[in-house]
Amino acid sequence: MVKAWILQEANGVCELCNSDSLFLKDNGKPYLEVHHVHHLANGGSDTISNAVGVCPNCHRALHYSIKRDELVYALYALYALYDKIDRLVDECN
Ligand SMILES: [Zn+2]
Ligand SMILES: [Zn+2]
């Protein structure tokens, strides 16, 4: 349910880099991946306040980039900017 809601909300646009999804899936819906900002493995919740819809590139970067901490801060900054902060809650503190 969380995944479906997030993908609906992202509406085919990566929530980190704002790029359109690279391709459509078999069902005609844009392909995006769901990322948990505070990783589930570290106790993050599987809720819409902890999840974003991102393109595969951004998703890999959020996990493996040497700058991943900066990317996470960028996400929070973006949400503050667009007044979506209501949705995304910082669980890292
Ligand atoms: Zn992206
Ligand atoms: Zn992820």
Architecture overview:
The termini are far apart. The chain has helices at 2-10, 56-64, 68-81; strands at 33-36, 51-54. It has three helices and two strands; from the N terminus they run H-E-E-H-H. The chain is 34% helix and 9% strand. It has a single domain (2-81), classed as DNA Binding (I), subunit A.
Give short descriptive properties of this protein:
DNA Binding (I), subunit A; globular; alpha+beta; binds zinc ion; 3 helices; 34% helix; 93 residues; two-stranded antiparallel sheet
Task: Give me a quick take on this structure.
It contains 3 helices and 2 strands; from the N terminus they run H-E-E-H-H. By secondary structure, the chain is an alpha+beta fold. It has one domain: DNA Binding (I), subunit A (Orthogonal Bundle), CATH 1.10.30.
